[in-house]
Amino acid sequence: MQRHKKATALRTCAVVLVLMTLMVVAAGASLAAERTVRVWFAGTPEPFMRAVNDVLKPAFETKHPGVRLQVDFIPWGELSPKLATAFAGGVAPDLFMHGQAATASFAAAGQVAPLDDWFASFSGAADFGATLNAGSYLGKRYMLPVFGSGQLLVYRADFFREAGLDPQAPPSTWDELMAAARKLARHEGARLIREGIDLPVRGISAQQVWSPFLWQNGGELLSSDGTAAAFNTPAGAEALRFYVSLATDAAIGTVDEAQPVGNLPPLAAGTVAMSFLPLEVINDIANYAPDVYPHIRVAAPLRRQTQAAWFSFAGMFVSRQSKEPELAREFLAFLAGEEPLEAIVSALGGLPPRQSLSRASFVTKNPAAVAFIQGMAHARFNPNHPQWVKTRDILVRYIEQAAFGRLAPDQALAQAEREVNRILR
Amino acid sequence: MGAAAAGQAKAAGWAAGRRGRIRWIIPLFLLPAVAYTLVFRVAPIGASFYLSLTDYTMLSRPNWVGLENYRRVLFEYDLFWQAFANTVQFALEVLPLNIALALGLALLVNRAIRGIAAFRAIYYLPSVMSVIAASMVWLWLYNTRVGLLNSVLAAVGLPAVNWLGNPGTALHSLVLMRVWKGAGVNMVIYLAGLQGIPVELYEAATIDGAGAFQRFRRITWPLLWPVTFYIIVMGLISTFQTFGEIYAMTQGGPLESTTTVGYLIYQAAFQYFEMGAASAISFVLFVVIFTLSVLQLKAYRSPAEA
Prior knowledge:
Distance between the termini of chain B: 62 Å
Largest sheet of chain B: none
Low-confidence stretches of chain B: none
Number of strands of chain A: 12
Structural class of chain A: alpha/beta
Helix content of chain A: 40-55%
Largest interface: A-B, 29 and 22 residues
Shape of chain A: globular
Largest sheet of chain A: 8 strands, mixed
Order of helices and strands of chain A: HEHEHEHHHEEEHHEEHHHEHEEHHHHEHH
Oligomer: heterodimer
Distance between the termini of chain A: 89 Å
Radius of gyration of chain B: 27 Å
Number of helices of chain A: 18
Number of helices of chain B: 12
Strand content of chain B: under 5%
Mean pLDDT of chain B: 90
Number of strands of chain B: 0
Low-confidence stretches of chain A: none
Radius of gyration of chain A: 26 Å
Structural class of chain B: mainly alpha
């Protein structure tokens, strides 16, 4: 009796084992039949991840039966190290998103594929206009622009009125900016209650905000052939002197960067009257401080010798390690369409790369977005150079030294030039 | 007699067989540990040393450059020496404060009163927090406008301090946070040391008329010296490798006042992808830590032996 029970149990086990093996084999076969495209998206905002997972991924997979889109979201801060590690290990994704500043280093190392042929056959290329050149290196295009960002002067209309300034006529020149900043600063006794303007003197944003002053004054960051620093000129020195005086004038504010209050940027918290900000931050203000948002205004790029503002695009690159280069280009063609781009750009609150999308409702209903798109007429981009990140960091280090009074602006630029030239040559 | 000899021979044979079995079982048991050490410890160190002699960028193949990275780091790279000075300053500030606080806490909790275990746990708690979580908390404490520290200063009529944004205060602010975070572990180590000191010594000293300070100076401190020495050596190694809080709180600024060698290695490796230079800096740091540790061991002499 007992032996019979044991035999039954053994038979049952054997049947289960065979069934499980068959299921695993069947699943494996089905997976083997399925082709996979691996894509790394940069950034982890919830609406963005939802747009990709709930809209883009199902739409692409429906259009391409038998193809699985494997999506990963990498925080911007971790993107470069993870990509470099993946490339070094031979496990890079088929496509990845990155800022245009990454173009040169990946292209120079031969890790990304040029897309000129693909752009030539892509019917919507003309709609991208000049943004297609954002990811260019040595005459070849490597990046499909996905969304843009920029730094424009953003100000509080209520503080303008309070200071007797016209909110409809924001500063348009350096002198007007200085005068407005002085008027807008508010002190209670010796205590500074509100800074007239908050200028970054540290980190990437210091370069992004200072460079337009250089360009407006007729200066350049690098020589046209990219072999030397070009910022140490009278125009550059004047731009840095002005920047430092604006950042350190005690009547305007302090050299210390204004800190956010919780989720609120200083402009929304009311501790700053003017600031250079990207559109994404203005959209955050709309979400986190809806009472303040109606007072937020965006000014056109400042003018001195010329009008200029810093802009940058992030986009999609195709890895040379891709085992599915054709599918990767299929995904590129899908992503470049108006609907997928609208889903991504509206979720991120950035600037659309396609001109036709500037008429989309998520742009036209947002006055700040409209102002940024108008400002793009004066857009300048950082140079695409393999040594750009180091160059930028050196420049930032010396902007900071000048702002903290460790070096005079002229000396700071001269030392920055020496260091930059050492790495460029 | 014959039977006894046969028994002895049998026992000797059995023992020899056992020894033989043990002889090949020992390496078998050691194999996982040896393999782990070789694969995950020795090989990466060797690979890292090799990379320090190349121009490896992770995006392209390494090319041999000999000692060029070491030359650049030591003689061309100004930031290295500033980072080195910051690291030394950080270590010299953290260690004495950490030892004083840990010892003070250990003396406080080394008594049998109700609920003492809860106090010990509370003091130990910061040590189990991840460095990033602790950094987030301290970023709030140091916030210029809404931070707790500046609120206290404002309450007593003092001006706000930009703790992390001012080159004069940033490193000290990081020291404070590190001392808070690290004191718990050393408190436990000191506590173990304190509980190993025979009570009779204190009783004898008390009978001889020694006060609390004299008992501490003549008994506690000398007998705790091996523990203190251990804490100094380990503390020096960990402070020289400081990275997490710098990355989370200051990114080396302002004006590179908080750039430590550990942060510089990260910057070279993962911002500029100069793996060769990053490996060279790592080996320079290794040589410094190794030399300091050897010097400490050579100089080690317990006050009790003096």
